[in-house]
Design brief:
23 strands; globular; Glycosyltransferase
């Protein structure tokens, strides 16, 4: 093991490095996230008073130090770090024999339970009164506010992180009898129709190997024992194993798990095991949830908010740390439907690599999302007639197909002549159509016959489907449908503060409100919005329950007026067809009671996010293409 030098580290993690289980897993996950981002880490060992007998460092901690992923602090050497993170603050229940000398710009205490007054006082005496007390979950936050209601807490939790690649297991073949597994907690006796397995803490079987043998992971911890984060649930979700858990975890995992009481586990497991689409959708939602909410990117982002920025050159991870993967199978996403492309792409299985092919208007957004991009200029950008541009599109797509050898090509928007010509000349990949709905009445019907060119058609859902009068409503034979596809996270972050007005495609102001910007995951901080009623904005704002005035564009590509009117009739938003009406509606929404009524109505009529189902549909087509062989099915 290396002992530290005296440089300034990006992150110092202070804990008892002998603790087994979740503490070691959390430290190792963060260290590895730092390595991938080019950040440096030093580990500081402080013996916990309750671990009085001799015990070595936890094996995963030893491996991190042995492989050079982090340095180990010398007992006497001072440490300088941008951020000091203290884990398991109960190690300060007594005065430590040796007080680590750490100079840090920020001191974060990750709370897995509410600390006693003595612990808080000791840590603040040692590391200053500016210590940030950061709960790791909503449950700990509630406990903290119960024992110390005046304590200032950060807006967001210092939640666990986990890497899907570390937990990926081979999909289990569908079995006749579902296998349920647990680590402990409520008794799950063998019952007819199910098999129960228990992970024994003997080291004979790793948690990852154990999860690979299960159809369901069941988690009902002892109600008398507080459990802060449910890390074992995260591990199961990352492994693609559907979780059945106590309802107490609903506030943490939302729609990513199934919930019941211990006596209802068997019936719920049998029902999901029989309904394979529902089973696979639950597994897909769980993996998406873990990626969005608990992936390493969220940890790197919170460090960035503290001024710890990633290096320009990121070192390659050690080969032994990440399971070997097969060469990526690629999918081309063609068109300017970037918001839906991003939502689907981020939920694809790890072995599928998306590549967005779009015009200049869409490329920046796709590139900012970390997607590989290729430029497909529009006719106007090339200065050519439409008939010549069709030939250019055909040749450009042929080149990209030869370059990337994709399993599938997903076309967003309309299948114009250039797309039709490309399909005709390139039979290798499976061609699929992400077909928009909500066409204005009397428009777009000319594209109906082009559906026969595709091996599959996917139509994203519409909250306002009841007001849809477009041509697709009578042309759904053989078309797959999913819920509205958005980039909304499963569990949006809610925060309070000043009055924030979001304007999307509309210029507006409201006295007492500050105009703000917000990405999908930040909509919980928006007080009121005024927006066009295009597909993305309409479903994001309603899905996030933001009180909104929709101002439809009568010349929009789809029927914005029908959407806005439907939302108004359903009581979830206000429709305004001109500037004066929009201004009057915004003034109406200055009333908190009016906003609360709209938000409450949105929650009552909430819809799910179809992005995970769309990704599963797309992955299924890629699997079929691999099985049938290129060129056998177009």
């Amino acid at each position: 093991m290396r002992v530290v030098d005296h440089r300034v580290y990006d992150v110092a993690i202070l804990s008892d490095l002998r603790y087994p289980g979740g503490n070691a897993a959390s430290i190792v996950a963060e260290v590895r996230a730092h390595v991938a981002a080019g950040l440096t880490t030093v580990l500081i060992h402080v013996p916990a008073p309750e671990l009085r007998h001799a015990r070595p460092f936890e094996s995963r901690i030893v491996a991190c130090l042995r492989d050079g992923l982090a340095d180990l602090a010398d007992d006497d050497a001072p440490i300088a770090a941008k951020v000091l993170l203290i884990r398991r603050p109960r190690i300060f229940a007594e005065e430590p024999a040796t007080v680590p000398k750490v100079e840090a710009g920020h001191v974060i205490v990750a709370l897995d339970q509410a600390p006693g007054d003595d612990v808080r006082a000791r840590i603040e005496r040692l590391y200053g009164p500016a210590v940030v007390w950061a709960p790791i979950s909503g449950q700990v936050r509630e406990d903290m506010l119960g024992v110390a209601p005046g304590l200032a807490l950060p807006e967001t939790d210092w939640h666990e992180i986990i890497e899907l690649a570390d937990w990926q297991v081979e999909p289990r073949p569908h079995s006749t009898v579902p296998v349920l597994g647990r680590h402990g907690g409520a008794d799950l006796p063998e019952e007819p129709g199910v098999q129960v397995r228990l992970l024994v803490e003997s080291g004979a079987e790793s948690p990852r190997e154990f999860l690979g043998t299960l159809d369901f992971f069941v988690h009902f911890p002892d109600p008398e024992r507080a459990e802060a984060s449910g890390r074992t649930i995260l591990e199961a979700m990352a492994a693609g194993v559907p979780v059945i858990a106590s309802p107490r975890f609903r506030s943490v995992f939302a729609e990513a798990a199934a919930y019941t009481h211990p006596g209802g586990v068997r019936d719920l497991a049998l029902r999901l095991h029989k309904d394979r689409p529902a089973y696979e959708a639950l597994a897909a939602r769980a993996r998406s949830f873990v990626t969005e909410q608990f992936g390493s990117a969220s940890h790197i982002a919170r460090l960035a908010s503290l001024g710890v920025l990633t290096r320009g050159v990121v070192p390659a991870p050690r080969a032994e740390l990440i399971p070997s993967a097969r060469p990526a199978r690629r999918i081309l996403f063609v068109g300017d439907d970037i918001a839906r492309f991003r939502a689907i792409a981020r939920r694809l299985p790890a072995e599928l690599e998306p590549i967005v092919v779009a015009g200049s208007a869409g490329l920046p957004a796709a590139h900012a999302a970390g997607l590989l991009t290729e430029y497909l200029p529009a006719a106007a950008e090339l200065g050519v007639a439409e008939n010549r541009w069709a030939g250019f599109v055909r040749d450009r797509l042929r080149h990209l197909i030869e370059l990337y050898d994709p399993r599938a090509v997903l076309v967003g928007g309309v299948p114009h002549d250039g797309i039709a010509a490309a399909i005709e000349q390139n039979a290798g990949p499976r061609w699929l159509w992400l077909r928009p709905a909500m066409w204005r009445r009397g428009t777009g019907g000319q594209w109906a016959a082009r559906g026969a060119l595709f091996a599959g058609i996917l139509e994203p859902g519409e909250f306002a489907a009841g007001g849809d009068e477009g041509w697709t409503t009578t042309a759904r034979a053989g078309v797959s449908t999913v819920g509205p596809i958005t980039e909304l996270p499963l569990k949006p972050r809610r925060r309070s503060g000043g009055n924030a007005l979001l304007c999307r495609g509309v210029v507006a102001s409201l006295p007492g409100f500050t105009v703000a910007e917000a990405r999908p995951g930040e909509l919980g901080g928006i007080t009121v919005a005024v927006s066009r009623a295009d597909y993305t904005n309409f479903h994001e704002l309603l899905g996030a329950a933001v009180p909104t005035v929709f101002v439809p564009d009568p010349d929009g590509a789809d029927d914005e007026l029908a959407r806005a009117r439907f939302a108004a009739a359903a009581g979830v938003a206000i429709c305004a067809t001109d500037d004066d009406a929009a201004a009057a509606a915004l003034e109406h929404l200055a009333d908190p009671a009016t906003r609360e009524a709209l938000s409450r109505r949105c929650a009552e009529l909430s819809f799910g996010n179809g992005a995970a189902d769309a990704a599963a549909w797309l992955a299924g087509h890629c699997r079929e293409q691999s099985e049938t062989g290129a060129g056998s099915v177009r």
